[in-house]
Amino acid sequence: MKALSLIPLCLLGLAACSDPEKIARYPIDPPTAEKALPNRLGRAELREVSLPDYAGGQEIAFQTPDGALRSNPDNLWADDPARSVTLALARQISSLSGATVISEPWPLADPPTRKIEVRIEQMLPGADGLLHVSGVYFVSANGYERSGETVRRFDFTVPVGSQEPQAIAKANSAAVTQLARQIAQLR
User: Fold this and answer.
1) Cβ-based neighbours of 143, under 8 Å, separated by 6 or more
2) Which long-range contacts (CB under 8 A, 24 or more apart) does 30-36 make?
3) What sign results for the dihedral spanned by CA atoms 95, 26, 178, 153?
4) Is the peptide bond before 105 cis (omega within 30 degrees of 0)?
5) How far apart are CA 39 and CA 37, in angstroms?
6) Which residues are CB-contacts of 66 (< 8 A; sequence separation ≥ 6)?
7) Which parts of the sequence belong to the ABC-type transport auxiliary lipoprotein component domain (predicted)?
8) pTM for this structure?
9) What is the pLDDT of residues 10-21, one digit of tens each?
10) Helices 81-97 & 165-185, crossing angle to 10 degrees?
């Protein structure tokens, strides 16, 4: 019976060890871009962006010189990374082109004319000081039409500068803007 009464004390002691002020959360939040491109998408629904496991987790991952991916439980994304990237990408495409791009599910009465799907295969803050971003995106006509379907690969880097979480978050935000520009231009 004595052992059972020690369990709450042990749990209380463990809780005291974790300091919530040491945990930092970083958003993926690029500044809103200004309209600079023609509207080639019209009304488009963006499916949730697919991310690799290390980029989709709550902890901010980075590559060390030995090639390993590491993270620190005290440095977290402010929101679910897939949700955050999806919302920021929709906002950036809309701002850059004037298109109406909304993440799924489509909330408006009139259906979208296009659907966009993005599969990010790599979003890696490398040991070389660059964020490596690659994958593929698809733009298709909504419904049974086959005209205007687009499949494009993307592969680019964004300078990170350091493995600090705020630098990685800033690079991820810049990568979202660069990807939004490519999708808006359908290139």
Assistant:
1) none
2) 30/88, 30/92, 30/173, 30/174, 30/176, 30/177, 31/173, 32/91, 32/92, 32/95, 33/92, 33/95, 33/96, 33/177, 33/180, 33/181, 34/95, 34/96, 35/95, 35/96, 35/97, 35/98, 36/96
3) negative
4) yes
5) 7
6) none
7) 29-184
8) 0.86
9) 544 444 455 567
10) 50
In terms of Cα–Cα distance, which of 119, 118, 115, 86 is closest to 103? 86
Which fold, 2-185? Rossmann fold (3.40.50)
Residues for the chain: how many in total?
Answer: 187
Residue 158 contacts residue 171 (beta carbons within 8 Å): yes
Residue extents of the structural domains in the chain? 2-185
Strand order through the sheet with 43-46: 100-103, 43-46, 114-125, 130-141, 150-159
H helix and E strand count, the chain: 4, 9
